[in-house]
Design a protein that fits this description.
208 residues, alpha/beta, Rossmann fold, 5-stranded parallel beta sheet, 44% helix, globular, binds guanosine-5'-monophosphate
């Protein structure tokens, strides 16, 4: 039985540990396809074009919107972010599970456009821990940290709109939870019903 891949959306405030959890998931299984977003923000130290993001100009970003190249897009703390649509269906058709690390406005767009997507919201263990993580990064100026904390609180209000909420106490623990969600989602009757039909009823010998 060859399943089509699952589209998995992971959101959570900046500093909730999404990127670390994503890296852990990608390390654990080779069946994941990480969707590389386009963004107008500047690369942080160590970030590479085509690995972490596609770093593009605002003009190019607007062109991508006009040409309908983005599955969703949103503005976040002054920068634009969007998911290139092309590679996603290709990966899903190949049976890959596609991981999107996107903020809440984009996630809600996916919810209405791709009803079979699985939406997971990651919360940090506490506000203090979130604040500590953002401050200890060392690559974000204080005014940006304040803006991200305010944005984080607004985002947390949307957590109940998601299918699942996971808490990032530890990297391993949260990756285990996400894997459990993905594995359970694969067994959903809605996803598997067509295989039961194809493999059993359509294949029945004439005398049955
Ligand atoms: P950062 O600048 O810290 O890498 O990301 C800021 C926020 O933008 C994060 O919450 C991240 O999940 C979100 N983000 C990254 N890529 C996309 C995207 O393609 N679309 C949307 N809507 N948000 C994104």
């Amino acid at each position: 039985m060859k399943d089509r891949g699952i589209l998995i959306v992971l959101s959570g405030p900046s500093g909730s540990g999404k990127s670390t959890a994503m890296a852990e998931l990608l390390h654990r299984r080779d069946n994941y396809y990480f969707s590389i977003s386009a963004t107008t923000r500047d690369p942080r130290p160590g970030e590479q074009d085509g690995v972490n993001y596609w770093f593009v100009t605002r003009e190019r970003f607007e062109q991508m919107i006009r040409r309908d190249e983005l599955l969703e897009h949103a503005e976040y703390v002054g920068n634009c972010y969007g998911t290139p649509a092309g590679p996603i269906d290709e990966a899903l058709d190949q049976g890959k599970d596609v991981l999107l690390d996107i903020e809440v406005q984009g996630a809600m767009q996916i919810r209405s456009r791709r009803t079979d997507a699985v939406l997971i919201f990651m919360v940090p263990p506490s506000y203090e821990e979130l604040s500590r993580r953002l401050n200890s990064r060392g690559d974000t100026p204080p005014d940006k940290i304040k803006a991200r904390l305010e944005t984080a609180l607004r985002e947390l209000h949307l957590a109940p709109e998601y299918d699942y909420i996971v808490v990032s106490e530890t990297v391993d623990g949260v990756a285990d939870e996400i894997e459990a969600i993905i594995d359970a989602e694969k067994c959903r009757a809605q996803r598997r019903a067509k295989f039961v039909k194809e493999d059993f009823f359509n294949a029945l010998p004439p005398h049955v």
